[in-house]
Specification:
rod-shaped, 38% helix, 5-stranded antiparallel beta sheet, alpha+beta
Length: 241
C-alpha cells in the first residue's frame, strides 16, 4: 500500500481530532490514522517517517527575516492566486505560524483545502524563499559602462549655400559614385541635402534621403550630373528637370 508523505506532527494532529470524534484512546486513534495513511500501525508509521523525513525548504534566518504570514499579508490586494491565498489566510482565524512549507501544506490538507489553494501555497512559498534570499544576499552593483549610442541616420545636416551661380546643364560634369557612397543633391540651388547612393545605372543615381529626418529612408533617382560630392557642387548642379 502506498504510504502517505505527511509528517509525524500531521499524523498526531489527525489522531487527536479523530480521538475526540470517536471517543477512543489516543493510542487507538494513532493506530487507526496510521493505517489510513498506509502503515501497519502507529509504531510502523513513526519508524518510517523518522527514517525518511519529508524534504522541506528551510526559512533563511540570516540578517533579514520576516515570517511567512507577515510576508503573505502584504499581497492581499493582488489580483492573483497569491492574493487569493493571502485573503483566505486573513479570514482563517486558526491560520498557524510555521517555519516550514510542509507544515503549512499539512494544515491545508487538514482543512480540506482545494488543489488550487495547495498550488497557490507552493508558489507563494517559493516566492517567499526567493525574497528572503535576495534580501540576505544582495547582488553587488557592478560599474555600468556606458555604451556608445548607435545612430541610425546620417549625421550630416541640410546646408544653405549662398552666392552660387548654377551651371547650364550643357556645362555640367558627372562624378562617379558607387552604392554606399555619401553624396549631396539640391532641388532649388540654395539648399543641399545629404543622401546615400543605393544603386547606379547608365543614366541615373538612385539614393536614399538622409535629411530632413521625416523623409529619411525614402528613395529617389536623378540624372548622374545632378548628384554631387559637396553641398556647393550640388547647388551648382541643382535639379532642373
Amino acid at each position: 500500500m502506498k504510504h502517505s508523505k505527511h509528517t509525524i506532527a500531521y499524523i498526531k494532529r489527525q489522531a487527536k481530532n479523530f480521538k475526540k470524534q470517536q471517543a477512543i484512546s489516543h493510542t487507538q486513534a494513532l493506530d487507526l490514522i496510521s493505517k489510513k495513511h498506509g502503515y501497519s500501525n502507529w509504531k510502523h508509521c513513526h519508524k518510517m517517517l523518522s527514517q525518511n523525513p519529508p524534504l522541506e525548504v528551510k526559512v533563511v534566518t540570516n540578517l533579514f527575516h520576516v515570517p511567512f504570514t507577515d510576508w503573505l499579508k502584504k499581497h492581499k490586494n493582488r489580483n492573483s492566486p497569491l492574493g487569493d491565498l493571502a485573503t483566505d489566510m486573513l479570514r482563517d482565524k486558526e491560520w498557524p505560524s510555521h517555519n516550514s512549507f510542509q507544515d503549512y501544506q499539512d494544515y491545508l490538507h487538514f482543512k480540506n483545502a482545494s488543489i488550487g489553494a495547495t498550488a497557490a501555497l507552493k508558489m507563494a512559498w517559493r516566492t517567499y524563499i526567493a525574497y528572503l534570499k535576495k534580501k540576505n544576499c544582495p547582488v553587488s552593483r557592478k560599474s555600468i559602462v556606458a555604451k556608445p549610442s548607435i545612430k541610425n541616420h546620417d549625421l550630416r545636416k541640410i546646408v544653405v549655400v549662398r552666392k552660387i551661380t548654377p551651371l547650364h546643364y550643357a556645362e555640367r560634369t558627372v562624378e562617379k559614385f558607387v552604392p554606399g557612397d555619401k553624396a549631396w543633391i539640391s532641388w532649388d540651388g540654395r539648399k543641399a541635402y545629404p543622401v546615400t547612393i543605393t544603386k547606379v545605372d547608365e543614366r541615373h543615381y538612385t539614393f536614399k534621403i538622409e535629411r530632413p529626418l521625416k523623409n529619411a529612408g525614402s528613395e529617389h533617382f536623378l540624372f548622374l550630373d545632378e548628384v554631387r560630392s559637396t553641398p556647393e557642387l550640388a547647388c551648382i548642379n541643382f535639379v532642373t528637370s
